[in-house]
Amino acid sequence: MDHITRTSRQIYLIFFIGALLTACSHKKVDVSNIPLNVTVERFDRDFDVMRTKPMAEQATFLKKKYGAFYHDFIGLVAPGSNINDTAYFSTLRMIFNREVHNRHPYLDLKHDVDSVYPGNMEKQNQELTDAFRRIKYYYPKAALPTKVYAYFSGFQAQTSLGNDYIGIGLDLFLGADSKFYPAQTDIFPRYISRTFTPANIAHRVTESIIRENLFPEKDSDKSLLSKMVYNGKVLYMLDQVLPDVPDSVKIGFTTKQMQWCNDFKANIWGYFIEENLLYETDYEKIQTYVTEAPFTPGLGDKNESAPKLGIWTGWQIVRQYMDKHPEVTLQQLMANDDAQKILNDSKYRPK
Description:
The chain is mainly alpha-helical and 351 residues long. The protein is 50% helix and 6% strand.
């Protein structure tokens, strides 16, 4: 489990910025006739009833309604516990009643979650329904989670994939300015927590499903090029199944970072070539270009460069490949593991 995803995480100016922030390599297909609907179930609210009702009674209800998710959740908050043994109730009472400096952390968190998500998450229901339908459009036989649960992850996971479910850790989608995140900068520095917003839920859930259920990265993908193209394919698929989500959200960039990449794309590519990075397999060196960071060392002045430049460049390679080969379907792209051929056939040479 990582900290983000856990498995069981002026006219010209307006036009220019709009072009940067919206996907440019997708077609929006009609999926309204696909019989699939997503409803985010508020486990967090049902769990909170444990605080006010007899625990044994509510535990029976939760086991029946949430099944494997409840089992996994209790294993998270009370490691080693058995949901058929009421011994874990003492752990739950401690969570509910814990007091720190005259404050109650659980109640404080519940208050803020309820403030950000006061209703039934209709916006997220619509966004996820559309995304799941689009995945089904391209992959009718895809085994998607049939249940989506919202819960408090204890600031451990934005998404949790389990047996036929995916959980959404609402405590990591409270908004960039949530009071809870500054205290956890050692785990979630500002350049990461600024993406912890409600607008990121559909993207994070969909990306988790693509990366972990549908197209997990192969262990053999060790070179930077292979990782660039793999991530580029994932983002290209997100272009197709989340056509209304801005590019900046999909890759987690600020507007300035998106513009920086576009302005200096030739420099970025030239740097990769001159430094012989495409076929680099050293893990530590590769991480510089594919992981979250405030900027990319060695590129840009005054630390203004965007991070994850390998992933961003891989995305552009895949987009150009698909633009040059309209006969290639999404399914064929995702099944193509030949990163070198995709690069060659894309003729990617930014200027």
